[in-house]
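Late entry, written up from scratch paper. The run itself happened at the end of the previous shift, but nothing got recorded in the book at the time, so transcribing now.
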Amino acid sequence: MANTQELYDARLKRVSDAVKLIEPDRVPIVPVFQAFPVYYARERTNVKYTIKDLLEDWNKAGEVYDVFYEHFKPDLGWNPILFFPTPYMESCGITWFRWPGKHFDDTMTMYQYIEGDYMKADEYPEATRDLTKFMMNKWMPRSFANLQGLAKVDFRNAMWFGHMGEIAAFSDPEVIATFETLAKTGKILMDWFIYLGQYEAHMKEKFGIPPLCAGFAYAPFDMIGDSMRGTTEILMDMYDRPDELLAMIDVVTENTIADTIAGCQGQAVPYVYWWLHKGVDDFMSNAQFEKFYWPSLKKTILGVIDAGLTPVIYVEGAYNSRLEYLKEIPPKKVIFNFEYTDMAAAKKVLGGHSCIAGNVKAFTLSYGSKEDTVNEVKQLIDTCAPGGGYILDTGTMVDDAKVENIEAMFETVETYGRR
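Output as recorded:
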């Protein structure tokens, strides 16, 4: 029987072969799970923690993931990073999350993200001119209720005797309170990061499962739209202030490339997980995609590839009209992971060029039968696996799916997915 190091190496090779368009010994399975391990543990074991419990104590999150990995063995696995710690959110007073125990009573509801225009429409020139100053003085205080003192400090004019005024601002009681909060919140986050690293080592030693990725990345357009302008606002900005939006995208693109590469150094795997949001078929035309979305995304992908990393591009929604653009990325360098995109079309366009992944439907896993799940997995394997370059994945993050359907998905890949 193989030891955990041999299992770990075999799983990494299986995924690496798929990226290189080599048919592996078995179709790799890398599902995206969020809260499902909590539901699984509650249904099948005596570990009855709630989502609220995991958000409040990351050690409990590790216990639940242990229960999950005792039974399910994906080829790459998540650590509990998707369970953002409540203590950090409470400490900084984050304004754009809602979570159980504070904002709603249902302890089995995952946190919710609340969009807002944390950068106003007329602030594009200011933010583009000096993004660091804008983030410190405006975006951070708007985003974190307990960090209001950041609006009062600045080092931009510290040259010569300007430093006197800049340093004097740190005597303000609100500034002092803010920096005390930053130190407290920073300690919480650093302890959490250390735990996540320890859990990845535990995944390897106990289960022989490699981590899913070295880090995360986003399309520059999405970074502005998700966290600064909001979806409705940035889509209108394409019409109302296109030049200002493009200038801001250029600034964010350069930062994204540098920060993504730096954040992935020294990690156990080369995979960088991208979450794409607003470039889907339903949100913009191909002409808008070509102008506002694709050039900066392509530049970030190529920059990360040049650093020796492998992007995993998770495409939310459908990219049925965008598939040809994806061939502009060098072959055998990327995994394109699809939510609703037609997988037969994706295989036709990208087969022999790039690895594709996806996309067992969340509806099937939550509401279908075991037979439905088996048939869907087999159909995906039949459509996408021939010739290599396919990884089976769930279409979306899995929460309250039927346990028997998740088991059927893994079992079918293990048997039917053998080459």
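The first helix runs from residue 4 to 19.
(Scratch paper discarded after transcription.)
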